[in-house]
Design goal:
- The chain has helices spanning 11-25, 45-50, 68-86, 98-109, 132-142, 151-159, 173-184, 217-232, 246-256, 270-279, 288-293, 311-316, 326-338, 340-347, 358-375; strands at residues 2-8, 30-36, 57-58, 90-94, 114-117, 145-148, 167-169, 203-207, 236-241, 262-265, 282-285, 301-303, 319-321.
- It is α/β, with parallel strands linked by helices.
- A seven-stranded parallel beta sheet has the order 3-2-1-4-5-6-7, with helices on both faces.
- Helix 1 packs across helix 7.
- The protein binds uridine-diphosphate-N-acetylglucosamine and uridine-5'-diphosphate.
- Uridine-5'-diphosphate (UDP) binds next to helix 1, helix 10 and helix 11.
């Protein structure tokens, strides 16, 4: 048996590793173990429940507003014990969070091979997104197998001297998860979701935002831009599930808390969030995952960041990088609300991030890897 230890800590990691964990679990060649770091708690647990992921270890590291120093050191100490107990043949991490950095570093310290799912994303800007750009670069250089979602990610890894024969272009596993949820999506919203009441005659815009490099001025400007949108477009309503990070919640609630046609709500579980993406006319976000998901639903995305590591969407014409300035956010949103041709061009674009088969490809590669390991 070949033991794979998947390490995950936040909602996007749960969503994007779930399809891989499911595929590993049904394959008799693998023993599939899961360590939840608990970097997120309230924003993670409903995702674990939805995807029926049971943890073998839960480090439960989350504390309100903890620093990256506290988080990183607790993760590393916790993971040392987990790896000692589990004795995995391979560690899997996904993405670019601090859990990924600690998971890949822990694997390296223990000389256990690491597979990086969603390898090779690059903004080429050290501090944006912060700290994700450096987390993923370090994770890639600590890894032994690279699952690149796109050709662009593959090329970035090659540029950094990573061996071509260990890089596999698989598509993004987030699209697998999205397809899985779409199959079960009810036509009507479930009352337990507690979605806000918006006027069905109004045009709906969905908003998310949580990037650290936008804390402070960035969020103040984003909120100003959102405010301008509802003031100028009287038939527009915004729904914004606000991330639990206090550096996001405080400015967002302070600036947008009492405005007509702006619904600030708690972070949503995955199924209601996908339902809302489907209902929205367009999406304003700084999220990595949402940039990848929205094109599968035919929803134009305005990316409220200065740079993105997901340029495939911009190049395919399904997303636009609008920065965090209020005027530009307002202007680009207004353009899509008033120029139907521009809107349709974005909405009809093809999703460059995957076809929903990424997890199968990854597990096929892991099978070959396990066979090779057994023959040595
Ligand atoms: C983290 C990741 C980011 C990822 C995002 C996904 C890092 C440094 N950041 O950002 O890459 O895009 O998750 O959402 O790895 N909090 C809660 N409950 C939760 C989650 C967060 O209360 O379930 C609050 C806590 O006060 C916590 C703070 O948010 O200390 C920050 O959480 P953290 O995981 O460090 O960073 P995120 O901003 O969530
Ligand atoms: N998401 C969700 N509920 C929300 C906000 C986001 O289910 O209230 C989902 C979203 O569809 C995507 C993932 O969470 O799958 C993205 O998480 P986030 O934006 O926090 O992280 P990132 O992708 O930027 O790392």
């Amino acid at each position: 048996m070949f033991t794979v230890l998947s390490i995950l800590g936040t909602r996007p990691e749960a969503t994007k590793l779930a399809p891989v964990i499911h595929a590993l679990q049904v394959n008799p060649k693998f023993t599939c173990k899961v360590c939840i770091t608990g970097q997120h708690r309230q924003q993670l647990d409903p995702f674990l429940k939805l995807f029926e992921i049971k943890s073998d270890w839960d480090l439960d590291v989350m504390l309100p507003n903890q620093s990256l120093f506290q988080l990183t050191s607790k993760l590393l100490l916790g993971l040392e014990k987990v790896i000692d107990e589990c004795q995995p043949d391979l560690i899997l991490v996904q993405g670019d969070t601090t859990t990924v950095l600690a998971g890949s570093l822990a694997g390296f310290y223990k000389k256990i091979p690491v597979g990086h799912v969603e390898a090779g994303l690059r903004s080429e800007n050290k501090y944006s997104p912060f700290p994700e750009e450096i987390n993923r670069r370090l994770a890639d250089h600590l890894s032994d197998l690279w699952f690149a979602p796109t050709d662009k990610a593959h090329a970035a890894l090659l540029r950094e001297g990573i061996q071509d024969e260990k890089i596999f272009v698989t598509g993004n596993t987030g699209i697998d998860a999205l397809h899985w949820v779409l199959k079960k999506l009810p036509v009507q919203p479930d009352p337990s979701w507690n979605l806000p009441n918006w006027n069905p005659n109004n045009r709906l815009i969905l908003v998310t935002g949580h990037r650290r490099e936008s804390f402070g001025k960035g969020f103040a400007h984003i909120c100003e831009g959102l405010s301008m949108i509802v003031k100028q477009h009287k038939n527009v309503e915004l729904v914004y599930p606000v991330h639990l990070n206090p550096n996001v919640r405080e400015p967002v609630h302070q600036q947008l808390g009492n405005q007509d046609r702006i619904h600030l709500i708690e972070p949503l579980e995955y199924t209601p969030f996908v339902y809302l993406m489907n209902q929205a006319e367009l999406i304003l976000t700084d999220s990595g995952g949402v940039q990848e998901e929205a094109p599968s639903l035919g929803k134009p995305v305005l990316v409220m960041r200065d740079v993105t590591e997901r340029m495939e969407g911009v190049e395919a014409g399904v997303s636009t990088l609008v920065g965090t300035g209020a005027e530009r956010i307002f202007a680009e949103t207004s353009r899509l609300l008033t120029d139907d041709l521009a809107y349709q061009q974005m909405a009809k674009g093809v999703n460059p991030y995957g076809d929903g088969q990424a997890a199968k490809r990854i597990v096929d590669i892991l099978l070959q890897y396990a066979d090779l390991a057994a023959s040595h």
